[in-house]
Amino acid sequence: DAMVIQNPRYQVTQFGKPVTLSCSQTLNHNVMYWYQQKSSQAPKLLFHYYDKDFNNEADTPDNFQSRRPNTSFCFLDIRSPGLGDAAMYLCATSRDGLAGTYEQYFGPGTRLTVT
Amino acid sequence: SQQGEEDPQALSIQEGENATMNCSYKTSINNLQWYRQNSGRGLVHLILIRSNEREKHSGRLRVTLDTSKKSSSLLITASRAADTASYFCATDAQGFQKLVFGTGTRLLVSP
Description:
A: globular, B: five-stranded antiparallel β-sheet
């Protein structure tokens, strides 16, 4: 009954080598999010999609890009990973909220290691 | 910037005891949510309280919200070892469809 699926769960990449993380959902939610979470810290929003509309956070580095080809899938591309990009990457979804923000459903995360 | 600050940063208790975590935030909100995260896993939504609500219950969880003080608390009663996790508050203050997470409280419940 997995609702938000992230692949792979663990990813090792080399410094500067592009990497793509994937997320899929079976909830048919129109909002999808990517968060970065470093050890013992809060999740930090990188960007989110409202349907096909892409919303980038002001402090998200240009090194991070995203694609959402359809409702179910969303990808996080890191063009040139640096050692500081090693983190857990969390994908989440939510319904369209008319008043405030609905609860978010998270995937299990992808732990990225950069060597 | 961080919207929520949580207190304490870490809490260690025995099974059966109650655990209380506090969250303070800076700007007005529509709702405040609490999430749980087991080590190395994704977050799980626990409870949502709207700005016009003062208290909400869900099983062993009790959440309060004081908008005048811009603070919320999460009480877990009769804690179990399985409650060991990090707990985060999150607010929607920074824009529609977005949540900003607090710094989190790491709870350790010993058998």
